[in-house]
Amino acid sequence: MNHLHNAIRKCSYQGYDRRWGGYLLPKEVLALRDFGVADLDNVDWAIDCKRSGIIYGRWTYFNLLKGENESKFKILKEGLHHGS
C-alpha cells in the first residue's frame, strides 16, 4: 500500500495560497512529512499514534513550498485523480 498516494488522493486545495488539507491516518501524515511537505500539522500526533498502535484519522493541513516538491505533489495529485 502506498501511503503517500493515499494521502495525496485524500487531500484537497483549501482555496488560498498553497494550503492543502485532508482527513489523514497517521501513516499518511508521516508519508507526506517524508515527501517534504512544509508546515505539516499533526506530525507529533502521528508519531505518537504509530508508537501506540492507534489508527484513526485527523484533519491535517499543510502548505506546499514553491519548487520541486510542489511540482511533484501536483503531478501526483493530477495523475491519481485521472487514474481513479
Defining key terms:
three-stranded antiparallel beta sheet, alpha+beta, 17% strand, single chain, 84 residues
Description:
The chain has 84 residues and is α+β, with helices and mostly antiparallel strands. The protein has one domain. Helix content is 52%, strand content 17%. The protein has four helices and three strands. A three-stranded antiparallel β-sheet has the order 1-2-3, with helices on one face. The relative contact order is 0.22. The model has no long low-confidence stretch (mean pLDDT 86).
Structure described in brief:
The protein is an alpha+beta fold.
Beta-strand content: 15-25%
Low-confidence regions: none
Shape: globular
H/E element order? HEEHHEH
User: Based on DSSP secondary structure assignment, what is the total number of beta strands?
Assistant: 3
Structural class by sheet pairing and helices? alpha+beta
Rg of Cα set? 12 Å
State the strand order across the main sheet.
Answer: 1-2-3
First-residue to last-residue Cα separation: 15 Å
Helix content: 40-55%
Structure annotation, total helices: 4
Number of domains: 1
Q: What's the helix and strand layout?
A:
Elements lengths: L2 H8 L1 E2 L5 E6 L1 H10 L7 H10 L5 E6 L4 H16 L1
Antiparallel strand pairs: 1-2, 2-3
Helix pairs in contact: 1-2, 2-3
